[in-house]
Design brief:
465 residues, alpha+beta, five-stranded antiparallel sheet, 16% strand, globular, binds protoporphyrin IX containing FE
Length: 465
C-alpha cells in the first residue's frame, strides 16, 4: 500500500496543521536557489515544530508551541537571518543530489534495500513516493501531508511521529541504485539491464576482506545525514515504511562524528584511531576538482547516459581492532598513518594542510613518511592523480562476546568511476598499507547515485524514461 493509497482512503482529509504565522514572518517561503546552501525556512503544510505546539493542547497549545519555537530561535545570539545548526535546511531539488558536496553533517543513518516486488511499475511508484516524502522531510515537514496525529483514526499515520518538535537539522537524503537492481540471479525483472552502466558491478574481493553478506550489497540505498540522529533515523524509518510491499531494508548502519570535512568551512574531525580525518579530502569549494573526480560526465558510458551529473557511492564497513591499536606506542600510531596525532601534520614537517614530502629522509636514511604509511599509500600523487570525496562516519555497534568493541569507520566515498577511483587504491591498501593490520572490512556495497531531481520529477527518473 502506498502513501497515496492511505490518503485515498480518507473521505474527508483533515486540514494539515499549519504552524501559526508569526508576526513579520511568511508562512511560505521560496526554496533557496543554490544546491548545497543552507537556509532557514518556513514552509506551508504540516510542520514538526507547529505540531509540537498543537499536540493535545488546543489553541493555547498552538500559541505556546509557536512561542516555544520562537524562543528557541531567538535564544541563539546569531543574526536573525543566519540559520542555527538546528534550523538549517538544504534544498532537496537541484542539479545534483544533496548529501554529496553538502558540508558533512554530524550523524548518519544509511540503509540498503532489497526490492521485494517483480513489478517495474511498483519500483517506479516507490521512487515517486520516496521523492515526495524526502523533499518534505528535508524541509522539516512530516513524511506525509497529514502528519503523525491528524489522519483518519482507523489508519496508520502517514508520519511515525518521533521527529515531532525536532527542527530540520540539516537533513539530506541521497538515493542510489545497486548493480542488483539491473540484474539479479541472471534475471532482469525491471527491464533495466540494457541501462546498467559498465562501472556498476559488485566490487571485487579485496585482500583482507572478511565480508558479512548481511552487511553488503543492496538494490537501493538511502544515505540520511543530519545534525540530529533522531532526524536521520526518522527519515529512513519513514522511507522504509513507505516502501512496505515494494522494498525492505537489507542492512543499515548508524554513524556519528563525521570522519571527513567536505567544506573548507568545517574543522577536520577525528576518526576512532584518534587521528584527524578529511584533511586532504576534496572540498565543495573546489568545483573544478569535484567535476573532475566526483560527477559522472555525460557520454561516459553508452548504457549509463541517465547517470550523467550523478556519481558512484562506495560504502565499506571497516572494523578497527581498537583494543590492539590502543596498546600501540604513539610513535607506531603516527608511523602507520604518516601524520602527527596532535595536529594532523605530515611527518615530513609543516602544518596540517601542507603537502607531505615523501622523499625527505630522517635518521637511518629511512623516509620520514614510511613506505607503507596510509597517507603515502593513498595520496593522489602516488595514485595517478586520483582523488575522491570521502564522507564517512565513525560507528560503534556494541561489543562482541570477548569484550571487544564492534567499532570502526563506515567509509563512504563519492567518485566518478569506481574502476579508476576506488578499486586500484583499495587493492593497494589491502596489499601493503600498514593500517590494514588494524582493520577488517566487514561490509561492502557500490551504488550509482543518479543526478539531482528537478521540481515535479522523481529521483532516478531518467533511468526509467
Ligand atoms: C578505517 C579505515 C581508514 C582510516 C582510519 C583512514 C584514515 C585516514 C587518515 C587519518 C588520513 C589523513 C588525513 C586526511 O587527509 O584525510 C587519510 C587520508 C586518506 N585516506 Fe584514509 N583511512 C581509512 C580508509 C581509507 C580507504 C578505504 C581509502 C580508499 C580506498 C582511503 C583513502 C584516503 C585518501 C584518498 C586520503 C587522502 C590522502 C591524501 O591525499 O593525502 N582511506 N585516511
Amino acid at each position: 500500500m502506498s502513501l497515496h493509497d492511505l490518503h485515498d482512503r480518507t473521505t474527508e482529509p483533515a486540514e494539515p496543521r499549519r504552524e501559526p504565522e508569526l508576526p513579520g514572518e511568511p508562512a511560505e517561503s521560496s526554496v533557496p536557489a543554490e544546491p548545497g546552501t543552507a537556509a532557514t525556512r518556513r514552509v506551508g503544510g504540516f510542520s514538526r515544530r507547529g505540531l509540537l505546539g498543537a499536540a493535545g493542547a488546543g489553541l493555547a497549545g498552538v500559541a505556546a508551541g509557536a512561542m516555544g519555537a520562537r524562543v528557541l530561535d531567538s535564544a541563539d545570539s546569531s543574526p536573525a537571518d543566519a540559520p542555527t545548526l538546528e534550523s538549517k535546511t538544504y534544498p532537496f531539488y537541484g542539479t545534483h543530489q544533496a548529501g554529496i558536496v553538502t558540508p558533512a553533517q554530524d550523524r548518519l543513518h544509511f540503509a540498503a534495500f532489497d526490492v521485494t516486488t517483480d513489478s517495474r511499475q511498483d519500483v517506479l511508484q516507490l521512487l515517486k513516493d520516496w521523492t515526495l516524502a524526502a523533499a518534505r522531510m528535508s524541509q522539516g515537514l512530516g513524511a506525509g501531508e497529514l502528519g503523525p496525529t491528524s489522519g483518519p483514526y482507523g489508519a496508520p499515520p502517514d508520519d511515525t511521529g518521533e521527529a515531532i518538535g525536532l527542527p530540520p537539522s540539516g537533513l539530506t537524503l541521497t538515493f542510489g541504485f545497486g548493480p542488483s537492481l539491473f540484474r539479479k540471479a541472471g534475471k532482469d525483472p525491471f527491464g533495466l539491464s540494457d541501462r546498467q552502466p559498465a562501472a556498476l558491478e559488485r566490487l571485487p574481493h579485496f585482500p583482507g576482506d572478511n565480508l558479512d553478506p548481511d552487511k553488503s550489497d543492496g538494490d537501493l540505498c538511502i544515505q540520511a545525514c543530519a545534525d540530529d540522529p533522531q532526524v536521520a533515523v526518522h527519515a529512513v524509518r519513514n522511507l522504509a515504511r513507505i516502501a512496505f510491499g515494494r522494498a525492505a531494508i537489507r542492512w543499515s548502519q548508524l554513524g556519528f562524528g563525521r570522519t571527513s570535512s567536505t567544506s573548507t568551512s568545517q574543522t577536520t574531525p577525528r576518526n576512532l584511531f584518534g587521528f584527524k580525518d578529511g584533511t586532504m579530502n576534496l572540498k565543495a569549494e573546489e568545483p573544478a576538482m569535484i567535476d573532475e573526480h566526483v560527477w559522472v560526465p555525460s557520454g561516459a558510458d553508452a548504457k549509463g547516459g541517465w547517470l550523467a551529473g550523478g556519481s558512484y557511492l562506495v560504502a565499506r564497513r571497516i572494523n578497527m581492532t581498537i583494543e590492539i591499536w590502543d596498546r600501540q606506542p604513539l610513535r607506531e600510531q603516527e608511523r602507520v598513518i604518516g601524520r602527527t596525532k596532535a595536529e594532523g601534520a605530515p611527518l615530513s614537517g609543516g602544518n596540517e594542510f601542507d603537502q607531505p614530502d615523501f622523499t625527505m629522509k630522517g635518521r637511518g636514511d629511512e623516509p620520514l613518511v614510511a613506505t607503507d604509511a596510509h597517507v603515502r599509500m593513498v595520496h593522489s600523487d602516488n595514485n595517478g592523480g586520483v582523488k575522491m570525496l570521502r564522507r564517512g562516519y565513525n560507528f560503534v555497534d556494541g561489543s562482541n562476546g570477548l569484550g571487544r568493541m564492534d567499532a570502526g569507520l563506515f567509509f563512504l566515498a563519492f567518485v566518478r568511476d569506481p574502476r579508476t577511483h576506488f578499486i586500484p587504491m583499495q587493492t593497494k591498501i589491502g596489499r601493503g598499507d600498514a593500517m590494514s593490520e588494524y582493520l577488517q572490512h566487514t561490509g561492502s556495497a557500490l551504488f550509482a547515485v543518479p543526478p539531482g531531481v528537478a521540481q515535479g520529477q522523481f529521483v532516478g527518473q531518467a533511468l526509467f524514461d
